[in-house]
Amino acid sequence: MKNLKYGLVILLVAALVVPGLVMANNENGKVNSYLDLMIEKSNSTIDTKNVTADMITGAFSETDKFSYFQAVETYNTEQNTYINAEYVGIGVSMTAHIKGVEIVSVFEYSPASLAGLKSGDIIISVNHENITGKSLEYIASLVKGPVNTYVTLGILKNNEGPVLYYDLSRQVVAMKTVKSYIINHVGYVYISSFTNETGKEFKEALEKFNKKGISDVILDLRDNGGGTLQGCIDVARAVLSECVVTKMDFKYSGYLDIRYEAMKNDETYNMVLLVNENSASASEVVTGALKDNKAAVVVGEKTFGKSVVQSSYEILTPKAYDLYSAKYAISDMFTLSRYVSFYEKHIDTDYLGAAKLTIGEYVTPNGSRINLVGIEPDINVEYDGSLFININNLDNMLWIRAKYDVGMTSYEIYRAKVILKEFGYEVGTLNVLYDETFKQAVKQFQDDYGLYPYGVLDYTTQDNINNILRLSYINEDIQLKKAFEVIKEGK
Amino acid sequence: MKKSNRIVIIVLIFTLICSVAFSASTKVDENYLYHFYDFMQTLYYRDISTDDLVGGSFNGVLSETSIYSCYEQNQVNETFNSNVLGVSLEKVRTGLLVSNVYPGTNASKIGLETGDVIYRVNRISTSIMNIMDLDYVIEEAGSKAEIEVIKAETGSIVKLQCELSKGYISLIDFFIKDEFGYIRINQFKDLTSDEVGKALQFFDNNQIKNIIVDLRDLISMNIEEAGEVADFFLPFGRIASGGDMILSASIKSDYHFVNIIINEKTQGAGEVIARAVKNYRTGNVFGQTSYGLVEAVKTYPVFTDAAFSCYSKLAGTTDIDGIVNYINMNQLSLSNEYVSGYLHLVENELYDNNNISYEGGVTPDYILNASRVRLEINPQDNGIWIRKDYQLNDVSYDVFVAEKVLSQLGYFKQTPDVTFDINTQKAVNLYKASVNLPQDGILDMTTQNILNYNLFKTYIMKDECIVNVMNLIKEN
Fold first, then answer.
1. Is the Cβ of B345 closer than 8 Å to some Cβ of chain A?
2. Which residues are paired to A219 by β-bridges?
3. Which strand (E) or helix (H) includes residue B464?
C-alpha cells in the first residue's frame, strides 16, 4: 500500500513533467529543425547562446528601419527620457537609440546646428569612444565639458551609411528653436526643430508680427527633421481655426485612433509654408495640417515621408513568459506583458530586451498617408543641385555666443569684420583684434539700424548683422524667393 | 508491488531521458517565439506574415556567417515582366547582390555596378525578397522607384532613382568576329551551360578555333553550373571539390581550347572555370586577378507550418535533410502552397583540383587592364525583344528597333517607325540575302537574332580589353 502510494506520487510527478514538455513544444518543431540544419551544415560555427535574442532581432529585418529590437545587455530603462541642451553644450536634445543616441532636436545657433547636425542623426561615438549600450547620462557627461573645448562626434546620417566625424566646440547655447524676423514687411519664421517649447516661441513670433500689423507669414520648415508631437501640434493650432490638425491611425484595435483638433482662432494669416526633402516627421504633420486645411500655400520640394508613431515594449524572456503565462493563464504576449508590468515587481532578468515598434502612422486631415510617400508641395521649386543656400544656415553667420568690445580678440571679430566690410563699413585691418576703427564701424552700423550706438558688438547687434547677411542671400535662395513672390500674389 | 514500482521508475527514467533528449534538440522555445510573432503582428502598423517573420529570424541566426547564407521568400509574382531594370542578382542576407549589369540598360545608366547590394526598394527592405521579384516590385510602383544601394567599392549608401527599360537579359551573348568566337556569360542559371554548348557548336560549324569567354564583372555562386561550363574546356579530371560536393569533367577528346577574360570583380563560378583552365593548361587566362571567393551554396525548401507537420509525419523524421530526401524519393509537390521560401546555406569551402583554396583569386597568365566599358546606349538600342515573327503591316516597337539597326547597317533609308511597311520588307529581304537566309520578307526570329548580334558587335569592339585579347591571341 505504502509502495503504491509512493508510485502514485512518482507517476504524478512524471505526469506533471510531461505536459510541461509538451506545452513548451506545442508548435510543430519546424523552427528547431531548421535551427539544427543551420548549426549542423553551416560552414561557420553558429553561436546558440543567444539564439532567442538573435531570432527576435532577425524578425525585424522586414520592418521599417525605425523598428528594432534591443537586447538586454544594451538596453537601458531611460529609453524615453530626453537630455536637454543646456547641460550638453552643443545644442541638441537626445534620446536613447540602439546604436547610441538619437538627436531629437537641434537648437538654433548652437554648435550642432552650425555644424549641420539634424534631428534624426545618430551619435555613435564621442571622442572616438564607442557609446553603444551606454546610458544617456554617461553619454551626456562625455559630451559636456568646459566652454570652448572641443568634442568629436561620430554621426550616422539617416541611421545608415559611413560614420561622419564632427568636431564641435562646446558653447553656452540658448534653447531656442524658433527664429523670426521681418523681411520686406513679411513675417518670416524659421523653426529648426520641434520641442515642447516651440509652440510658445512660435506664438511669440506671431504676436510680434500682429503688433506691427503684419499678416503675411512665411513659415520655413526646411531641413527640419521633426521633434516632439506636442511642438508641432501647438504650431499648427496657432494658425488654424476649428479644424482637424492630424489623426493618429493605429494598427492594433485596442489602441483608439486619436484626432488632434484646433480650437477657434481669430487671427488669420496669409501664409506660405516652405518645405524640402529633409522636412520630416513633426514638420510633415504641420505641412499636412496647413495644406489640407488650405491655410498655407506649400512651396518647395516633396517632403521626406517619415510620419510614424512608435512605442517601446519590454520583451519577457522565454522562462519569464512561461512562468507568468501559467500564473495569469494568459498566453497572449502583449496582454501578459501588461499584467506583468502592472502586478509584478520589475526584475531585470525577466526581460530579454526591448522592442521599438512602429505601431501607427499620422494621416493628414484629409486622410492621406504621409509615411514613405511624403507631401507634394503646391508649388514645386527644386534646387538644381549646383547651389544650395538656406539663409538660416549660412556658413559665415555669427555664432552669437559672447559680447565683444575694444581690446578683445576672437575669430568671431574677424568674421564680423568681413561681413561689415562687405556692406561698405570701414573696418580697418581684417584681423581678430577689436580695435578703435572697428568700434567706429560697429557704432555706425548700430546707428544705421536703429540700435543703441555704443560700439559694443552685443548679441542684438550680432543678430542684426546676421539678418542683413540673410537679406543679401534671399535672391540666391530660390525657394525663399518663390515664397516671397507667392505671398505678394496672395495679398 | 516491487515490480510495479520498478515499472514506474523505468517510466520516470524514460521520461527524464526523453526530456533530456528533447531539451538537447530544443534550441529555442517555439511556443514563445510564435507568441512573439503574434505580438508583432498585433502591433506593427503594416501586415507582416508569420512566414516572413520566421525567415527573418533565420537571418538573425545566420547573422555572423557568410552573406550568401540567407533566407529567401517565395517569388510573389511569377508572370514574366516585359520591362527590366537590367541586372542579374544573387541572394544575400543584406538584400539583392548585383551580379552582372547588362550594358545599355537603365541599370548601367544610373551607375549600378557588379558587387553593389540593393538593400531597399521604395524604402522597403529587400533582406528576404526573392531575386525574381525586384522588377515586379518596381513595376508595381509605376515602373519608377527609389532604390538604396550599398556600393561595392566604398561601402557607402547611395539612393538611386531607377526606371525599368524595355528588353530582356539573355544568359549569354555570343558572336563571330573575323576568326574569333566571342561568348559573354551574363548569368549562371540552370540553362547557361546549354547555351554555351550551342554557341560552341555554332563556332565549330563555322570552323572558328579562337574562342573567347568573357567572365568580367560577373558574380555567381552557382558552382554546379560553373562545373558544367568548365566541362566544355577540359579533357577530364577534377574541377573543384569541398565537403560532399565534387565537380569533375567527363573524359572526352573534343574539348575546346579557350581564352578566358576575368577581372577583379569576377567572383565564384567564373573563378572556378578560370582556375580549372589555368591548372589543366587548356587555355589562356587574361585580365586581372579575380576577387577570390568561391562558396558552394546549398538550398533547402522552408516548409509552411502545415506542410512541415504533414511531411514530417509522413517521413517519420523532423530532420530537414530526411524530409527533403523523402519528398524527392516520392516525388511529392514542392509548390508555393507548401513552401514559404528557401534557406541558402554555405556549407563547405571549395578547393581546386590541386586542393588549393580560391582565396587570393585566380591570377591570369596575361595581366592587362580589364575594366568593362560602360556604354551609353539609348534604351531604344537595347536590341529586339525576340518573341515573335513580324511581317507586312505589323506594328510594333520591335519593328522600330529593327529598322534602326537596318538603317545603321545601310539597308534601310527611311526614318525608322513602328510600322512594318513595304520599305521595311525591302530592307529585310536585302539583309536576309546578305546573310544567306531565304528572302521571304518576314522578319523572323533568326533574323532578329542576327540583327541583335550586329548591334552587339558595334559596341563590343569599343571594348579595348577585348581588342587587346584578340591582338594577343593573333600574336601567339
1. yes
2. A189, A273
3. helix B464-475
Cell numbers describing residue B305? 507550418
What does residue B319 show for φ and ψ, rounded to 5 degrees? -75, 125
Torsion of CA A444, A448, A449, A452, to 10 degrees: 50
Beta bridge pairs of residue A181 = A188
Query: DSSP assignment, residue A404?
Result: B
Q: Phi/psi at A164 (nearest 5 deg)?
A: -105, 140
Residue B312 to residue A29, Cβ atoms within 8 A: yes
Has residue B17 got a pLDDT over 70?
no
β-pair partners for B247: B240
> Do residue B45 and residue A358 have CB atoms under 8 angstroms apart?
yes
- In contact, B8 and A8? CB cutoff 8 Å: no
C-alpha pair distances (Å), B213 with each of B3, B108, B186, B469, B472: 79, 21, 11, 11, 15
Please name every residue paired with A361 in a beta bridge, in sequence order, or none if there are none.
A249, A308
C-alpha atoms less than 13 angstroms from C-alpha of B219 in its C-beta half-sphere = 25
Q: What is the ipTM of this complex?
A: 0.81
C-alpha closest to that of A114 among A347, A329, A394: A394
Angstroms from A325 CA to nearest CA on chain B: 10
Interface of B with A in 277-306 (CB under 8 A): 295, 298, 300, 302-303, 305
Phi-psi region of A159 (alpha: psi -120 to 50; beta: other; left: phi over 0): left
Query: Which residue of B19, B61, B312 is in closest CB contact with A55?
Result: B61
Helix (H) or strand (E) holding A245: strand A243-250
Q: Is A54 helix (H, G, I), strand (E, B) or coil?
A: helix
Chain B: residue nearest A330 by CA?
A: B35
Sorting pLDDT into bands at 50, 70 and 90, what band is A217? very high
CB-CB contact of B439 with B432 (8 Å): yes
**Tell me, what DSSP letter sits at residue B381?**
G
Provide the whole-model pTM.
0.75
Q: Angle at CA B367, nearest 5°, toward B363 and B370? A: 100
Q: Find all residues with CB under 8 Å of A474, minimum gap 6, and list them.
A: A183, A391, A480, A481, A484
CB B12 within 8 A of CB A14: yes
Rounded Cα distance between B278 and B240, Å, is: 13
User: How big is the CA angle at B84 (ends B197 and B109), to the nearest 5 degrees?
Assistant: 100
* Cα B427 from Cα B440, distance rounded (Å): 12
- pLDDT for B153-187, tens place per residue? 888 788 888 888 766 677 888 888 788 999 989 89
Q: Please state, in angstroms and rounded to a whole number, the distance separating the CA atoms of residues B283 and A38.
A: 39
Amino acid in position A285: V
A434-474 residue pLDDT tens? 999 999 999 999 988 888 899 999 888 988 888 888 777 77
Spell A29-49 as b/e; 16+ CB within 10 A means b: bbbbbbbbbbeebbbeebeee
Could you write out the DSSP letters of every residue in B75-135? PS--SPPSEE-SEEEEEETTEEEEEEE-TTSHHHHTT--TT-EEEEETTEE-TT--GGGHH
Non-local (6+) Cβ contacts of A460 within 8 A are A451
Report how far residue B174's alpha carbon sits from residue B202's, in angstroms, rounded to the nearest whole number: 10
Rounded to whole angstroms, the Cα distance separating A176 from A392 reads: 13
Determine the Cα–Cα distance for residues A184 and A167; give it in Å rounded to an integer.
37
C-alpha atoms less than 13 angstroms from C-alpha of B115 in its C-beta half-sphere: 17
